[in-house]
Amino acid sequence: xxxxxxxxxxxxxxxxxxxxxxxxxxxxxxxxxxxxxxxxxxxxxxxxxxxxxxxxxxxxxxxxxxxxxxxxxxxxxxxxxxxxxxxxxxxxxxxxxxxxxxxxxxxxxxxxxxxxxxxxxxxxxxxxxxxxxxxxxxxxxxxxxxxxxxxxxxxxxxx
Length: 159
Ligand SMILES: Cc1cc2nc3c(=O)[nH]c(=O)nc-3n(C[C@H](O)[C@H](O)[C@H](O)COP(=O)(O)OP(=O)(O)OC[C@H]3O[C@@H](n4cnc5c(N)ncnc54)[C@H](O)[C@@H]3O)c2cc1C
What we know:
The protein is 57% helix and 0% strand. It is built from 6 helices and no strands. The protein is globular and about 55 Å long. Bound molecules: flavin-adenine dinucleotide. The site of flavin-adenine dinucleotide (FAD) has 14 residues, from α4.
C-alpha cells in the first residue's frame, strides 16, 4: 500500500481489514482482538511503516544516522539486524579514530548496499499477492518453518 493510500485510510477501514484477517488468527489472538474491538483506539495507529525513501546522505559534521533513521524497514524484513550491523560498523569507525568525511562516506556506502538489497527483498516478499492466506497454506508453512528451525539448529543463514 502506498504512503498516500495510508493517509486516506480511516480507523474504521483498518478495523474492517483486521477483522477480515482475524478469521485466520489463532484463538488466543482472536480473543485479544475481540477485547480491542470495543475501543479501536486501543490498537489503531496506522501509517506507512516503510516508504522506501532514504536520505541521500546519512551524516553531517556532528551527526550520523543508523538503523531506521537511515533506511526505514517495515515488518517482515531484517530491520533489527540491519540496525545492529549499522551500530557495529559505526562502533568500528569510532574505535578506528578516523571520522573523516571519506570514512563516513565509506560507512554509508557499505551499509547502504546491504540494507537496500535486503529492504527491497523484504518489500518483494511482503507483497499482498505473495502472502499465504489459506488455513492449509499457513499450516504447511508453519510445518516447513519448524523443520527448518530443527535442522538448522535455529541458525538462519544470511543471504
Ligand atoms: C510493525 C513492525 C513490525 C516489524 N517487524 C520486524 C521483524 O519481524 N523483524 C525485523 O527485523 N524488523 C522488524 N521491523 C523493523 C524494526 O522494528 C526496525 O527496523 C528496527 O526497530 C529499527 O531499529 P532502530 O534502533 O533504528 O529504531 P527504533 O527501534 O525505532 O528505535 C528508535 C528509538 O528512538 C526513540 N526516539 C524517537 N524519537 C526520539 C526522541 N526525539 N528522543 C529520544 N528518543 C527518541 C524511539 O522511542 C525508539 O525507542 C518491524 C517494524 C514494524 C513497524
